[in-house]
Amino acid sequence: MAMRGLTVFIADIRNCRVRELEEKRINKEMANIRTKFKDGSLSGYDKKKYVCKLLYMYILGWDIDFGHMEAVNLISSPKYSEKQIVSLVQLQQSICFLQEDEANWSLVALDCLDALGYLGITLLMHENSDLVRLVVNSIRKDLDDNNEIHNCLALHAIANIGGREMAESLASDVHRLLVSPNSKSFVKKKAALTMLRLFRKHPDVIPAPDWAERITNIIDDYDLGVCLSVTSLITALAQQYPEAFMLAIPKAIMRLHKVIVERDFSADYVYYKIPIPWLQVKLLRLLQYFPPTEDPNMSEMLHNVLQTIINNSQETPRNVQHNNAQNAILFEAINLAIHLDCESDIVRQATNILARFILSKETNVRYLGLETMAHLAAVTDELDEIKKHEETIILSLRDKDISVRRRGLDLLYSMCDVSNAKTIVSELIRYLHIADYALREEMVLKIAIMTEKYATEHSWYVDVILQLISSAGDHVGEEVWYRIVQIVTNHENLQEYSAKMVLHYMRSPHCHENMLKVGGYILGEYGHLIANLPGASPIEQFNTLHARFGLCSLATRALLLSTYIKFINLFPEIKGAILAVFNQYRHVLDAELQQRACEYMAIATMPTDDLLQTVCEEMPQFPERESALLSRLNEKTGQTEDKRTWNIGGKDSNEKTPANLLAATKERNENGSVDDLVNSVSNTSISAAGGENGAAAPANGSAAPPTPATPAAKVGLTWKDQLAPGYESWYNRLRDGTDGILYEDSILQIGIKSEYHGHLGRLAIYFGNKTHTQLNSFAVSVESPEGLVVANSHTLATSIGPSTQIQQLYSLECQQIVTEVPLIRISYQAGSTQSIYLKLPVLMSRFIEPIQLSSADFFGRWKQIGGAPREVQEIIKVPGKIELERARTILVNHRLGICENVDPKPGNFVATGVFNTSLSGKVGCLLRLEPNHETNMYRLTIRTTSDVVSKHLKDILHTALLYRPAPSTR
Length: 970
Known about the structure:
6-stranded antiparallel beta sheet; 18 strands; about 55% helix; endocytosis; Clathrin_a/b/g-adaptin_app_Ig
């Protein structure tokens, strides 16, 4: 019921134009409330009204120093609305007392909690508040309550505050409400959205793989609203844990089929003749985060769903709302069809529909049409149908809406190939002069990338890039001019033409500083190639550069000074003019310029030119690598709430999307001896039968594509803090081997088998149930350290039968130097939920390939690497006596090749190897191990081409040499 007095009071406050009038009105009302509170016959309604007025004053920032006892008196009110209001004011009063008497803060805080209301929590508390930990128990009580109103209030508070402490304490309670069969539908909806909020804010707190099965099952809930809420949650979780939520694929397809094809839905969820369009859109988008299903029945069912959506789109919309809902579903369906098979008949139908949409009068429809067509262009090899609309797409660059212009640019970039590159690039350069400033940097990057990728003539590439730098210099990042320098350096036939053209552009009255940087580098290296051309004599080249020297930044001046010293080497006849410049800048305030001028002056005035010629030798070719322009463009387009299911650009730009990465990993696994590896693991089982669950992990590689395991950055240090007691004894045995038992207790036995080749490896883990009862809710997740990619090859069975084993295959890729090992988490239900955290013995040394060197080669490279920091040395005192054969075994097990007859002393070990990575290249490793039998010590000396590898390899071998395995009791 509305409170008229409160409404009038708020209106009066809002009508106050200056602070003085507001203060006067506040004081008048506070005096009135004091008077009323002295009247003992106030009704509950009046008390609530006056307390609400106090609350409004508090929200406006005024100090409230009375009304506490009146609020306390209202606690006994049977009306829920009065309890909720009063609790907020009592919280405020308690906070005031807390500020006045810090010594009794705990008592005051507890007093506050006794009367705390959820409106007060959400209004007055933030996630870092000191009182949060004190309200957690109160919130948990309401989550455990059978009153759904109390459940919802608690869920609101958790979602609004959302602090880490609250998430860690209450996430499991929220999950319990979500999956409980006794929870009402609207409680489940709020629980799903609350968990989504907690996951987005603190993803490491939510053990999503453990909860995946029960959360996914809620998609089948009879209440479509619950299904909608949980689909939002699963969409977020599946982006980080795709392998754990593979079960969502058939459930999403069947739910879509029921709603769209079978028309099985409640009339309450029909929006302008369309059944629950929000759920349809979310389910269609969810399926884009997974690879296409291999189940033929599911594939046919999904095909029927998509075809029905395409057919329904032909209906004439009844009104704007119907049109918007229909288009939302259609566009998401087209995106899914493209994701599944861009050459399918459905996609061909969709192409014709998109051609109409990009001509639509509605801005939103044009925007979505261009975006979806860009998706198609990004993944298909057949661009002819899209090229038919090239003129329309180019016209979209001049649309009045900048969002449409941006999507038009994306589409032109995605559809560009050798046949139309010149047309598209010339149009974009023409448009660049009038484009929005917000678009120009992105346009420059895309023009530069298209020009480099699709140039059929080297001269055209140089012309376009120099034109870009000349006309849009302020928006040209350093990556652009770095790249043209690399390409000119690596292509000899470009060098003369580039020098001639850059000299021409530098003579423009409006020459940009980036052009001077390019000109300084190219003329310094290749200016002699055009020195005999008219207008390009050495002194003219120097004068052209030096004319703008004083207007440049310090960094550009430093570059030009380097160009000048090269000119002295190339053109001795202009040495005098350049020495005058060096002499002038020997006394400037900037340390960098002064140092260069002094050093170059000293080199140029030496009696002989030997050092000058050595210093100014022509630059070698740059190593071939991925263009930095692509990385820069990906940075600009990668920051969205949900991960993109495709990348803007051609088909090659989408090779690293999640689905393609999974397919690539699967192909790698199938090329190796995975069958032998799995079979060897299976033969070491702890019991007889493989049983039904033993077949859950087929050894023929025909399972679903592998998916990357949980990245370390998402998990943090919590797993390390929870490692299983006594894991070290099992782990240490496997540090120096490739197969064996990783962990064993009375319920579960875990074993591994592994093999490695270069920067790739394969790891099979088998899980054996030692009991006579089934283990349910079985889940495994892996935390991989930075630089190591761990991907599994199929979805693991969710249960293990009695005396049965199942197995899981992982592919490993060492991308960079790795100094940590992966962690694995195993959880299952055996009476209660059990979780085991272990280290996987995937050490850096596993990715070393042994090599053999002669004595001369070894010591030659030993001297070439030199001392610290690439050399590390340590004296190791071992327990017991030195065992040379054991030391030899350790070196071999860590994949180092022992070189015989290299060290002059026969008892010393010399070993070599190459550490392999896919992104950071190779690292050569040399080692000497010198035993001293009298003192039971080793002197370990390692030299590698990376100081990080040297230190970490030393630590690995140090631990291995010290370790003495206890006698086996098995």
